[in-house]
Amino acid sequence: MNEPEAIRAMLGTPPRSIAVIGLSADPQKPSHYVSAYMQQHGYTIYPINPSIDEVLGEKSWPSLTELVSSGIRPAIVDVFRLPKAIPAIVDEMLTLGLPNIWIQQGIVNHEAAAHAEAGGIRVVMDHCIMVEHRHL
Predict the structure, then answer these.
(1) Three-state secondary-structure class, residue 44
(2) Cβ contacts of residue 1 below 8 Å, gap of 6+?
(3) Is 66 left (phi over 0), alpha (psi -120 to 50) or beta?
(4) DSSP one-letter code for 61
(5) Across the 136 residues of the chain, what is the mean pLDDT of every consecutive 10-residue run?
(6) How far is CA 70 from the centre of its chain?
(7) Is the CATH number of domain 4-135 3.20.20.140?
(8) Domain boundary assignment for the chain
(9) Angle at alpha carbon of residue 80, lines to 74 and 84, rounded to 5°
(10) Model's pTM, two decimal places?
């Protein structure tokens, strides 16, 4: 978890697509401005938020399952949710066969991260994707 090679692999390897769980329509929220930054730097953003229809010019999906069922397989799942939500997200990713989870800075669930890694999911946790992208 959090290996520099994992960070480089996630951020540098095409396809450059990110499903953002908890993406808010509020420009003041980190999920919004971090996603906007990634979008401005060439990443395709897929908002996952059942409460909104669209954000950052992209259709919002109610769940990862519905996104993948539509034929879209994001390279990274970026999570802006409380730590207690992470286990269900990991389980959904394992079911869908999604390879990379990025759990944003300040969000920690070691048990869910270990479960993800045991299932073959690459994990970055408690790091900001925007900050790490700037470092590359």
Answers:
(1) strand
(2) 113, 117, 123, 124, 125
(3) alpha
(4) B
(5) 89 87 97 97 96 97 98 97 98 98 97 98 97 92
(6) 18
(7) no
(8) 4-135
(9) 110
(10) 0.95
